[in-house]
């Protein structure tokens, strides 16, 4: 198992550790529910250094990104970021990613999922054919997500960058906690506000920034948070998790990601997806809340009232905020309307649920 530059700190803090995407990662410290509420109501720190980062440089960098991805990266100017998908030839999602415009038309950073680093790199290189200078900086990049409504207040004293007024999906580069060349972006996957901080794993940078953040946030009650609460937080906001809710066999239109699928350009599988948009999808990713008592889990079967199989659960949990079972899953399109009654197989029983509008927590 790989370690991140913060693994020894997690272990010293008594975190419950487990393997995730080949890395030894903290799952929880004081408990998932406690950490969930810390982020939703205050401020917490996630180590997400397992994520992948690629730098694309050159006059053909934008053209390559436009070809492999669903969103329109030409809309980005310096200091802006965008959520997008890498697509295969059949419209399936190779990965979801963030695109950072460092220098318009010339330099971009792609942030991809840890489990897909090699797959994504090889896929993009297939289309690159040596035209774009590419650098995989994943192994030397630290990434901390400081999330929650009080995150920017806690961090502002550590930098001259204007974190407090940073607009959603924008970023700045500068000095942070005495470390040069730190990228701070107003992104995150919790829906609770906050920023993500990228910096080079060099010297004592990791420990220096970690300690500075916790010292700055001590009075506010800042806490480290594990991947368990990251999962419950993103699910409450209806955010997709790669490998669960989206994969190589689901299209962005089926996954409710039509908003990042722009037909103003040609891209891999754009012809296929245009046709799918015209004819309509057979299955749709929906959010649902349990009506009767029960917690839905990944791969549980979804049925109609007569017991016919109509889909499967992709993500599910007991929502710490709503105190009820919630989930997402693919169902046949005719059962995808808000208000539709569905039934989830839980412990050999069909438990009633209802399709709801996402997000679960506004």
Description:
With 362 residues, the protein is an alpha+beta fold. The chain has three domains: 7-49 and 139-235, 2-Layer Sandwich (Gyrase A, domain 2); 59-131 and 250-279, 2-Layer Sandwich (Alpha-Beta Plaits); 282-357, Elongation Factor Tu (Ef-tu), domain 3, CATH 2.40.30.110. The chain is 20% helix and 34% strand. Helix 2 (32-41) crosses helix 7.
Distance between the termini: 37 Å
Spans of 5+ residues with little confidence (pLDDT < 50)? none
- Given the helix and strand composition, which structural class is it? alpha+beta
Q: What would the principal axes of the Cα set say about the shape?
A: globular
CATH topology of the largest domain: Gyrase A, domain 2
* Strand order in the sheet with the most strands: 10-11-12-9-3-13
